[in-house]
Inverse folding.
């Protein structure tokens, strides 16, 4: 018996039936099969349409949480949204809105909440929790990359081949990605890709193979910024500045120029800019005055942008921690006046 795909269900296609079966029996059997198949089809198609619509509306409304400044509410909402989105993804695995939101929420969970817990464990000297939380963050970024690559694959095939060399992936990106929507997708692919490298760079086993593919994430980030310099409210430029400040032997002057540009564009209302400027550039340079000034600005800011309250609440938590004497000295070689 042949089978053809019909609206998400497998509808049997009847060939020759046994000769001894009566014509009326043929008709009855065929009617029953068609009725059952159409019933499954209608239910399956309607369910998929409902999921697609819900994912579209969920993405449109997802920015509402950005206006909530309660960190713990943000943490709970992130965990709840992952459970819901993973469930909807099972029903509509190729839906681009679902893939995008899963990428973003897993990346956000890794940075905003798991890495926050990780820093706290490091400062306590809790080695067991530090190891556990680092692996949790790594899994969150892996999951984000997993969904992000599926999303990019809907626009262009061949990633696994071109990822093997810098020139190949640069050409692939230039040939296939050119719209502002592409820029957003590329940014949210590059972000967890680079975040997990930064997270695991000190690990003797996992660090080297990840670092060896640093160029992949950088190529995606550079392409995103080339398409749209203001991608994701200048977060693309900020990430690019952080990359150029990766070590004291990297492109530090270029990093400073980009940091200053982003700081001017955002007008000090996006506190993650000052935080990243301090913890990446000033920390690497060992510039204590700039380091304390930038982090002090984060802590003194009250409510600079109602549309970025959650993001700014996260930045304040990190700024306070990075102003601790132990972390500032150990990570940056800077002595600060604040106490732990």
């Amino acid at each position: 018996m042949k089978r053809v795909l019909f609206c998400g269900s497998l509808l049997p296609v009847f060939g020759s039936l046994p000769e001894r079966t009566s014509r009326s029996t043929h008709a009855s059997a065929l009617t029953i099969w068609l009725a059952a198949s159409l019933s499954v089809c209608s239910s399956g198609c309607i369910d998929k349409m409902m999921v697609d619509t819900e994912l579209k509306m969920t993405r449109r409304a997802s920015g509402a949480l950005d206006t909530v400044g309660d960190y713990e509410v943000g943490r709970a909402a992130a965990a709840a949204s992952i459970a819901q989105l993973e469930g909807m993804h099972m029903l509509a695995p190729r839906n681009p809105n679902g893939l995008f939101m899963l990428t973003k929420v897993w990346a956000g969970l890794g940075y905003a909440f798991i890495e926050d817990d990780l820093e706290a464990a490091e400062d306590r000297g809790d080695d067991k929790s530090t190891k556990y939380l680092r692996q949790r963050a790594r899994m969150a970024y892996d999951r984000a990359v997993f969904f992000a690559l599926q999303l990019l694959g809907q626009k262009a095939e061949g990633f696994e081949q071109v990822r093997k060399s810098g020139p190949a992936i640069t050409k692939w990106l230039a040939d296939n990605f050119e719209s502002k929507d592409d820029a957003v997708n590329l940014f949210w692919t590059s972000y967890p890709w680079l975040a997990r490298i930064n997270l695991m760079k000190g690990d003797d086993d996992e660090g080297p193979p990840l670092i060896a593919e640093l160029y992949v994430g950088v190529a995606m980030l550079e392409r995103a910024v080339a398409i749209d310099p203001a991608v994701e409210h200048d977060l693309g430029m900020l990430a690019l500045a952080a990359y150029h400040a990766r070590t004291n032997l990297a492109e530090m002057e270029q990093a400073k120029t980009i940091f200053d540009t982003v700081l001017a564009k955002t007008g000090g209302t996006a506190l993650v800019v000052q935080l990243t400027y301090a913890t990446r550039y000033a920390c690497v340079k060992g510039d204590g005055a700039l380091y304390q000034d930038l982090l002090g600005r984060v802590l003194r800011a009250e409510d600079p942008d109602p549309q970025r309250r959650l993001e700014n609440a996260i930045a304040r938590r990190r700024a306070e921690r990075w102003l601790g004497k132990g972390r500032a000295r150990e990570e940056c070689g800077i002595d600060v006046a604040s106490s732990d």
Residues 324 and 338 are 6 Å apart (CA to CA).
